[in-house]
Amino acid sequence: MKGSPRFEICLFVIAGLLLILPLRLLTGVAVSAPPDHLTVSVSETREVNAWVDFRFSALPEKVKIYQGDVLLWQGGGSRREDGDLTLRLTDNGALLRLELLWPAELKDAYVECSLEVDEMSDLRKGFWSQGHDDQLWNLAWEESQ
Amino acid sequence: MKKYLFIFLVTCSVVLSAAEKPLVVTLHPLLTEMVLRLTDGEVEVFSVFPVGGDLHEFEPSPGDMVKMQEAVMVIAMGKHLESYLDRLQENLPESVSIYEAGRLVPSVKIDPANAIFACCPAHSHGSIDPHWWHSPLAVRRAVRYLGRELEKILPEHKAEIRERTGEVMAELKDLNEWAVKELAVIPKQDRKLVTAHAAFGYFCVEYNFQAIPVKGINDERNPSPSYLAETIDTLKRENIKAVFPETKANDAILKSLNEATGIRLGQSLYADFIGNADVNGYANLFKYNVNNLVKALGPSPSE
């Protein structure tokens, strides 16, 4: 057996397999998950603390603030409402949805809303509202902030 | 005998309850005022800032340091106004936190063109203007943040602090609205605020003024004749209606400017909001500044 070509071929194949297997694994990992420094970040998202302040010309039944499907804050039953909330900024901006519910008999109410995000300038919005109202609020700050 | 025993017990309870109050140390009179308003006696407040002191020169004394080591919180104005804060933190036990009231207020940067007019070397060359208190809305924010911090050290009084914070914030909003209304009489072309140094950035942004700091108006050293001539040219070119010294004005220079240009001298403005026996308290100092601006830049009674 010793020195037979068949034995040498077997040893060669086994050694080859032992080398190929880790190489495959290594190359496979490289393809499925490139190192972090090779990935390109398309947009920067961060969580920020904010404070919202509402003034209503009439008494709303409900006020809710959503970001996507996430309910960030809710209030209602007062002409002045304020509260702390946490929202996600993507590329220094965010899209919020304000959901307001007014008494059915109310014709129109004016809403003043201001939002203060830590270290960023105030944003303000004013609008007329009635019934079951959905308002989109596109928050955007200058890049330097 | 019973009467004396009663007085003794009451005195003891007052002394003990005072001793139990957490100690908060403040580095500016505005902070002292706000902490007192928000806590209504629920903390002991110690102000280290001396009467008549210079905000940009002040550093706490060894005696102040001893007091700070006993505190639960040291409150600074922040935005690099207190350039000694890092050294201060190193010398305080970990249990004492330094809270910077203006840290989360949106910053106004000193215009690079005006960097040489910054109040001191630490605040020059495109850095952040630390005088955030010139905007009542910035102060309103700082009060909200301060209220939340005080709630953490007094959780049993959270509801009361939240209510008082709301009251002070509402007053500051009213103060801003008052200022907008008062300043409305100043025409756009006269909204130029000529002061000694670039300390009114937040005011100018809030109320749509152009800041024109003129080095030398407040300087204790006398400027050279060529610098004075250059300053006079600038004031004439910009059609300046009035110049405003700050509370430590150099009268000789002001007189020269006044004689050479005929430009009105406004009353001194409080840049650092360090009050005195005549004018004190945040709202009064702010109103004093606004009233002086309106008096000097607004239409004269004959207009």
CATH architectural category of the largest domain in chain A: Sandwich
Output mean pLDDT of chain B.
85
Largest sheet of chain A, described in full? 4 strands, antiparallel
The first-level CATH class of the domain at 183-296 in chain B is given as Alpha Beta
Percent range for helical residues of chain B? Answer: 40-55%
Number of strands of chain A: 8
- The sequence of SSEs of chain B as H and E is HEHEHEHEHHEHEHEHEH
| Separation, N- and C-terminal Cα atoms of chain B | 76 Å
Report the CATH architecture of the domain at 183-296 in chain B. Answer: 3-Layer(aba) Sandwich
Main sheet attributes: strand count, strand direction, barrel closure of chain B = 4 strands, parallel
Strand order, biggest sheet of chain B? 2-1-3-4
Q: Strand portion of chain B, in percent? A: 5-15%
Quick synopsis:
With 145 residues, chain A is α+β, with helices and mostly antiparallel strands. Chain A has one helix spanning 5-32; strands spanning 45-56, 62-67, 70-75, 80-90, 93-101, 109-117, 123-129, 132-140.
